[in-house]
Specification:
Rossmann fold, 11 helices, about 35% helix, disordered N terminus
Length: about 270
């Protein structure tokens, strides 16, 4: 949330400020693996869905992990294709360095401007990174680096994600507190416009639960997503505003006495 630091990540033109996003993930690189349980579970689910999403992929020689973070997906992909060559790319330099330390040939780069040659990969994998991108730009680039017949598989987030934050912060100020996630229809159109075919999209709702508001915020900040807000803030939120937001969130406690955080997860695939 932008309110965690007073910094927004969407500029006046509606573009996500990649420098600020990259810096946020740089700061979180040291805590990411310990805090990213949800992100790891989504990666596991994407792997499980490969027979549905990408049944035509048999033995890819080269795989791109787009938005690889610290390189967690390496283990997942190696389970299925142990002999494939894996290249990683992440917006955060610190995340890329940690992936390199795990033996991944990783570079720091933007999914909207991939630093790879045309027709480089048999498979492009991206788990929970595309929500930080303009879909049409990222899909065009991912298509470019895929070989003819190559397949893209991905997980991203859709509208309704973190709706509890929208509720808690609504009316407190005029700023956006959650990213403007693209709907599945927008994702499908962007894939088509990028020239990709055989598009498959699956939607699932995931809910994480937390003991208190403080630990909930710590989890989000600890994975680098603490700046998921929209418009640029010029001042920090005041103490009263934070207390109001927390009090509202407290009304959402479930039957087990835990605070929910909802994610609308979109799994997809397409072929060049």
């Amino acid at each position: 949330m932008s309110d965690a630091s007073g910094i927004g990540v969407v500029n006046d033109a509606g573009d996500i400020d990649k420098i600020k996003v990259g810096s946020a993930f740089d700061r979180a690189a040291g805590t990411y693996d310990a805090m990213a349980r949800f992100q790891h579970q989504v990666g596991e689910r994407l792997l499980d869905l490969l027979p549905v999403l990408a049944a035509s992929v048999q033995q890819p020689e080269r795989i791109l992990d787009g938005g690889c973070g610290t390189g967690y997906s390496r283990e997942l992909l190696a389970r299925r294709w142990p002999h494939a060559s894996l290249a990683g790319c992440d917006l955060s330099l610190e995340m890329a360095r940690r992936a390199q330390a795990k033996g991944i040939g990783c570079v720091c780069g933007d999914l909207e401007r991939l630093p790879f040659a045309d027709d480089s990969f048999d498979l492009a994998w991206s788990s929970l990174a595309l929500q930080w991108c303009r879909p049409e730009r990222a899909f065009s680039e991912l298509r470019r680096v895929l070989k003819p017949g190559g397949v893209l598989v991905f997980a991203s987030l859709g509208p309704g994600t973190l709706h509890e934050f929208d509720f808690a912060f609504s009316g407190i100020d005029s700023h956006r507190h959650v990213l403007p996630f693209a709907a599945s229809s927008e994702i499908g159109m962007a894939l088509e416009n990028a020239g990709l075919a055989d598009i498959r999209l699956l939607h699932e709702e995931w809910i994480t639960r937390h003991a208190d508001f403080k630990s909930l915020l710590a989890t989000i900040r600890g994975i680098g997503a603490g700046e998921v807000g929209g418009e640029r803030r010029r001042t920090l939120m005041g103490k009263n505003a934070w207390q109001t937001a927390q009090a509202r969130y407290e009304t959402l406690r479930d039957a087990q006495g835990l605070l929910p955080t909802t994610y609308q997860v979109l799994f997809g695939s397409a072929r060049k």
